[in-house]
Amino acid sequence: MQNENLIVVAGAGGFIGGNLVASLRAQGCTRIRAVDIKPLEEWHQRFGDVENLSLDLNMKENCETAAKNAHDIYNLAANMGGMGFIENNKALCMLSVLINTQMLQAAARNEVKRYFFASSACVYNADKQKTFAAPLLKEEDAYPALAEDGYGWEKLFSERMCRHFREDFGLCTRVARFHNVYGPWGTWDGGLEKAPAAICRKVIAAKVNGKHEIEIWGTGVQTRSFMYIDDCIKGIFLIMNSDIEEPINLGSSEAVSVNELVDIVEGIAEIKLKRNYNLNAPNGVNGRNSDNTRIKKYLNWEPNIPLRTGLEKTYAWIYDQYMARLHGKRESEQRAALA
Ligand code: NAD
Questions:
Q1: What is the pLDDT of residue 13?
Q2: Which domains does the chain have, with CATH numbers?
Q3: Which of 81, 63, 78 is nearest to 8 (CA)?
Q4: Is the pTM above the cut of 0.90?
Q5: Is ligand 1 within 6 A of the CB of residue 11?
């Protein structure tokens, strides 16, 4: 990566985008443009030496502004959250198609050298995820298409849009299918958080308020794999700079059930909680895991950080956020300290 090239991160006010900007800075990139629809004070991470733009990337002219003179674009901007969000906001999830479509057009017009799109394991055919035994999903298992309603279909369509921009307009596009990413600087409350952050928060709350119970969505036997943010960021750079043209899995293959995830977090917190299962809550497919054969073969990539280690770091970070809020420190003050 040439440090003086302009790198654009769309969705930089969010979890993965913010961590990506932090990593680009750490690698010595001197020209970074960070873009997000949220007002600057709501970004998870924000850096004073980066060009920070609050822009709605549904709008064509804003995508032009974002893409101007860019060498590489990482598009992580999307309407997204955990199962509670994506099951109840399908139209909003589908509307993210506007962001990727306008960004691809702006990228092609500006002759951007490389374009990264963040896809998801939610593109996989639901019929292949019916067992609780964490079926390994290979890239070809996205077809015949039966993606997660709303969110997954948008990702699948946008993957194809990336392919056609590559074939028809010569834009170099790269697509990763993320399997659940977790870690510090992620959303941990408010309804958009995903299972690892939600479980950490609930365990912390139980510990702090002395009510030793936890609500678990579903039966607790549904399985998933979880990738720590540092592994995800390394994988994004490898895929972006590779010659892999088709969508590829980027995830951990260490699958656990939700109950096992709770066991680990309880172990970290040194507490045991009574589990109340909410069978009416959204909980998605029964089982899912990332088949990493392809990424191991082509990029020699495998996650380095075991789930327990990653959850310890995540728990500690959420604990600090939780306590700071409890003591009346507003999050914008904490974020401003970074800027
Ligand atoms: P996030 O919600 O923290 O970040 C997404 C960001 O996009 C948000 O800050 C949001 O404000 C921004 N955004 C939304 N609409 C926008 C618009 N119109 N213009 C500009 N910015 C807009 O989510 P994340 O976890 O950082 O995910 C990043 C990407 O990775 C998303 O595309 C998501 O679908 C994908 N992904 C994430 C996971 C995961 O486990 N976190 C799994 C699969 C795929």
A1: 98
A2: 7-182+227-252+290-305 (3.40.50.720)
A3: 63
A4: yes
A5: yes
